[in-house]
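Entry:
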Amino acid sequence: KDWFWSFWRENQAFAEAQLKKSTADWQIIVTHFPCGHEIGWYRMLKANLGLDLLVTGHRHDQELWAPGHPRFNDLGGLYCIVTGGGGGITSEATPVENDGNWYGEAQYGFYDLVIKKSGIDITSIDYAGRHVLSATVPPR
């Protein structure tokens, strides 16, 4: 257990160093752990180092943390998606209808991202190919 936490801390330092020296238009981090994990650290990355988007997994559902999401402000305005849209018998709930067990807006779907200078368009698409939620990450 200590090894994993040590490795996590090393990777946090690496991510911070990369964000500090980056001159990219967009700052995006992809990680396994879902929105809400290490929330204070990601909030700091948004506020101090310009992180724009966090792409995550772990939970087997689709969650778009954007304006209107009840926990969006917990991340200090950082947009975050949980991309774990499937999982078979380990899925969070049925994909057919929201039975009250969903964390997010869909199951068994995916996200479409369009990255352009004027914004990052995020569209959540469910198992039936329906666009169920969208947001645009604004430029810094």
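The first helix runs from residue 2 to 21.
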